[in-house]
Structure formats: structure tokens, C-alpha cells
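call fold target=AraC family transcriptional regulator
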Amino acid sequence: MPEIRPRPAVVSQIVEKRGRLAHGDGIAPHRHVQGQLLYPSAGVLATTTERGTWVAPANRVAWTPPGFEHYHRAYGQTEVRVLEFSGELSASLPDQPTVFEVSPLLRESLLVLTSGRKLRPEARERLRGVVVDELVVGPDEAMYLPAASDDRLRAVTDLLHADPATSLTLAEFGRTVGAGERTLSRLFQTELGMSFHQWRSLLRVQHALIRLAEGDAVIDTAARLGWANPTSFIEAFTAVVGQTPGRYQQELRRADR
């Protein structure tokens, strides 16, 4: 994922709005006094912090807690619905950036709250409560790609970010960065909570979400991101996203219309 590193701004106003981001648009590092939900009702939105990257396609919503430095980048023509929470409602949600699945009730609640429609204050607060109730069911950790802190491990993950399709083995990466295969394997488990192969597969799925949003064909996406065949790509993608890449792309097209 590309990086943007100017000094973070602090955003303090509470907002409920919607807007559009063109492909590749970025929102520079910043913090919010309030907690913030971003729902890309079309397109893909990536949220990056020092802890890693969370990718939210159109069937997910991204949560960033109060005071947490982060930046965003859009992939494809992305329509973003923004809803912020202060006080008790933020305290009910995770204390780190998180991606949640979007239920039909959650989707409709977010669309109403960000539509500009006039609501009575008590009705608005009840609807906000519905949003939180739907979110606390459980986060979608599969959309989170953790970042490395060890210099040797970070060197490997930087190379993978630069070329997700590479077929280099962990031993070959180790020779490049000056670390043993066993050491790197241990670091992947202890720092990132997954194996080298699991982390690389998740990285490729995140890039696949972006390529599919840009209109690439499923077969082309599989080939360009290093999968041995389309079947293995479809299986890996479905395990993370919960639907096949073809179905995911159909939903993106329907949302664009």
C-alpha cells in the first residue's frame, strides 16, 4: 500500500456525511477526537496505521477509535459514508482500527444517517444505537494485515508489499535480508500471529480487492498476484472475504449503478 506521511492533523467536529473519492485519492495522516466509521458503499477503502492495514470493500465498514493516527486511500471510484461517535458509544467499540461486516440492517442505518435526511434528535440517537448494536456482534479480523516491527521481518514484508506476486521462498527472502529462515518463520508467528504463507496470501487478497474494484478480470487478477491457478485464488479469496471474487465484483458493479 502506498504511504503518505505528512504531520497528522486533529479533526474535532462530529460529522455525518457522504462523499466520493476518485481512484488513488488519499486522506493524509490525522486523528479524530471522536470515533469514526467509514462505510464505502461503493469502491474500496484502505486504512493504514503503524500497526498495519485494514481494507474495507463495499460489504465492510471501517472503524477508527478516537485519537488513533491513521490515513486512508481509495481504490476504484469510492463513495464513502462517514459517521462519528463520541462518549459512551465509542467506548462500546474496539480500541484499535477494525473492519466489520455490514449486515442489511447496519447498511440501511448508515445510509439513512448519512443521507442528509432530517431526523428528530431522539430518532437519530436510537438509529446510532442500532449501528453500535450491529457492530458489537464481532469484527472481521480477516481484513487486517498486521505490520512488522522487527527490522529483518519488516524488510521482508516491505519486499512483499512491493511485489505481492513474487514466488520467492522464505529462505530466499532470508538470504536477501540477512536472516535465517527459521528466525523469520518464528518472527512471523510471534509478531504477526500467522505464518509467512498466511501473511502473503492475505496481502494478495487485499491487493485482489483493489484490482477487482478497478475492473480487472478474476483470471487476470489471479495470475498477476502470483496464484498458481484461478481455483487456488478463488479459494483463498472466499476464505477471507466470504464470497467468491466473481460475486464480489458483481456486487461492486451493482453498487456503482
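return ok
Residues 227 and 233 are 6 Å apart (CA to CA). The chain has ten helices and nine strands.
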